[in-house]
Amino acid sequence: MLDLKVKMININPDQHHEILEKCPVLAEYSQFVEVVRRHQKSGEEQALQNAVEECIKRGILSEYLRKKGSEAVNMLIAEYDYDMDIKVQRKEENRDILKKWLKLAAKAETIEEFERNTGRCGIKHEGENDGDNS
């Protein structure tokens, strides 16, 4: 198993993090997010499009937004849905497990051999508990 430690950095402009001084593109992205938030707060009908246009005029990610402005707006409209992401990940995991089971079933000559092989692969059988009571 891979253990990963991640350091989160607040890149909001008012935090004045040193990384924003070292990475101009990240600083512009931070400013872009601020402009988007301000336009969304105002309740404008075309808030996202107006934010992109303002950033282009002010030189904030202007080259990128000139080329990919509509994609950026679409991405912002699509809003990330954590619950949907988790459902998709689980479906993908289940599909991968099913593929493993099918390969093992095709190789096994008996049910017992199949059960031994699935146990060795870390695949839980129905009703098994891995000690995690969550």
Explained architecture:
The protein has 134 residues and is mostly helical. Helix content is 66%, strand content 0%. The protein contains 6 helices and no strands. Helix 2 (24-42) runs antiparallel to helix 3 (47-58), helix 3 (47-58) runs antiparallel to helix 4 (62-77) and helix 5 packs across helix 6. The model is unreliable at 130-134 (pLDDT under 50).
Key structural traits:
134 residues; mainly alpha; disordered C terminus
Compressed to H and E, one letter per element, the order equals: HHHHHH
Shape annotation = elongated
**Approximately what portion of the residues adopt beta-strand conformation?**
under 5%
Main sheet characteristics: none
Which whole number gives the mean pLDDT?
Answer: 82
Total helices: the number is: 6
Radius of gyration: 24 Å
Total strand count, please? Answer: 0
Outline the secondary-structure elements.
Blueprint: H1 18-22, H2 24-42, H3 47-58, H4 62-77, H5 82-107, H6 111-120
Would you summarize the structure shown here?
The protein has 134 residues and is mainly α. 66% of the residues lie in helices and 0% in strands. The chain is elongated.
